[in-house]
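Holo model, iron/sulfur cluster. Inputs:
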Amino acid sequence: MVKHKQEPDVLSSSPAELEALMAPWGVPAYRARQLFEGLWRRPIRDYGDLTVWPKALRLSVEDKYPLHRVAASRVQTGQDGTLKLLVKLFDGQQVETVVLPHDYGYSVCVSSQVGCNMGCTFCASGLLKRSRNLTAGEILDQVRLANDLIQERGHVISRVDLMGIGEPMDNYENVVKFMRLAHEPLGLNLSYRHFTLSTSGLVPEIYQLAEEGIPVTLAVSLHAATDDLRSSLMPIDKAYPIAALIAACRVYGEKTGRRVSFEYALLAGVNDTDDQAMQLVRLLSGFSCHVNLIPWNPVPEHPFTPSSKNRVEQFQRIVQEHGISCTIRKELGQEIDAACGQLRRREEEALSP
Ligand code: SF4
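Output:
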């Protein structure tokens, strides 16, 4: 039987919300702030570790609001230091979290939903439909878990990508709250500029995010430059065609001052032609943006094959020659079920009768 999470959810609460929650029990505001600090800055596993609190207070709050930390049920380590985690939630459901080493330090790629309903035809995550949204605290706790794992290497997470399982804009309120909580000075104190939010292109939410006052990098999964091709790869294109999507992205860039990034996974013979590259150039000309070409990670259930290295470089050349910033994403963790969603899917298959 699925357990239901107690409300209110301590892990999803801001310092002010914790103060309001504790006040009826006569707990002073500074104790609530100590709890928030303890949850995120020097993370406690449970209330027993919060030794700045009197024991009686720890016991009484633990009774009312148990903590539901996420936990790694499997960790795969790549030769390049990439860590891919299968992460168990309080109700036994699982998502994936990936910790990536870079020249500047470590980033973490977090999941925002259990499964995804967007139905992109090249994606491993979308093969399992969404069963629920993650809470803000469950998303934030993936960052805490990543920090736990790399602190023995003397590092902390400095960048966060919302690019794991799920469409973040389809879990808008919790995702925005997650970013606000991660930005809290009493907690992880992460700059909004160090977040990248990936979306398949939910236009109304892009406009909404532009008004939030949280200038994160928007990474839009484009993957094709014409609606006929894009709608065959990404059903969301039928609801929000490319012209409407690009218009929303331009507004986002203007309002936030952040350069929008367009993600483009190259599929051999499908979207990697010179013609698509030129269509992309026409689409983005005059827009201060960035194109990120992604060598596609094969997913056995999908009929595509990755573009050759030469083709990827030729595509990049065409885009760059027309004055558009364009890079090829470095492939990390190649040998460890690299396509997002593969690890979880394999685990689910192994468990199914
Ligand atoms: S690419 Fe992203 S939005 Fe599309 S199905 Fe996969 S997880 Fe969902």
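The pocket of iron/sulfur cluster is lined by residues 116, 118-120, 123, 125-126, 165-167, 200, 221 (CB under 6 Å). The two ends are 18 Å apart (CA to CA).
Archived with the compound record.
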